[in-house]
Amino acid sequence: xxxxxxxxxxxxxxxxxxxxxxxxxxxxxxxxxxxxxxxxxxxxxxxxxxxxxxxxxxxxxxxxxxxxxxxxxxxxxxxxxxxxxxxxxxxxxxxxxxxxxxxxxxxxxxxxxxxxxxxxxxxxxxxxxxxxxxxxxxxxxxxxxxxxxxxxxxxxxxxxxxxxxxxxxxxxxxxxxxxxxxxxxxxxxxxxxxxxxxxxxxxxxxxxxxxxxxxxxxxxxxxxxxxxxxxxxxxxxxxxxxxxxxxxxxxxxxxxxxxxxxxxxxxxxxxxxxxxxxxxxxxxxxxxxxxxxxxxxxxxxxxxxxxxxxxxxx
Length: 314
Hints:
The protein is of the alpha+beta class. It contains 11 helices and 10 strands. It has 2 domains: 11-89, Phosphorylase Kinase, domain 1 (2-Layer Sandwich); 94-310, Aminoglycoside 3'-phosphotransferase, Chain: A, domain 2 (Alpha-Beta Complex), CATH 3.90.1200.10. A hairpin with a 3-residue loop joins strand 1 (24-28) and strand 2 (32-38). The longest helix has 21 residues, at 152-172.
């Protein structure tokens, strides 16, 4: 039987008919396929869940405050034969580095990487939290994070309680004294003082930070996993924890970055530790709930050594 020739990609023709004759496919991922249109714009043909109007408002809120790097911005949304197409700002640069699940990080953290992270954290902390950000739902949850709350710390504590109740038994099988650890984390979060409310990206893993040839951050992408408005110390805490999740020096890197951010950004170490425990408790079940899931294993391992959750002496 003769082989069937692969179907021609119809999308360049679609974009040409709409005034973009030079459209070319430049990438594909879990969300969909991206086409370069020129003039600083791209189009994304969505196979995953497309951005909502609320997400577009959050993007616009961030862009309006002009952080020192580009961020996503959706200019137009179309639908073609049931497929959503978005026209977006083209984001420059290349990923700061690959994910630690796919490449081993060296023991010594490069200075250029630490400095790039500071630029990104300070830039995001300069963007005030908005009503649209407060209305976002963190992945895995069933309601806007801030619903019924006036403080981020209390809203996060309520999220931790809901997440621990979802499938906590699976995590408790790998984490000693689980129930008491959850209570310690809730008490720590609720006792944190008020803090500025700024945009939170919530997933600043290395591939989500793009840099130029000199190593300067020029774009931050992939908002949505844990994006909200909140204490910028939460962003720093999560970034320190997830920068290197799976490499041979992961625990050492997390501790080093936590100390570095506390010193350079003025955040209380105890607050960073509490926020790291909270992150593990609200994301542990998002990809799988067994030892064969890397994120689940990481969350369990982090909670066992987290001094707020486990009441260990540092």
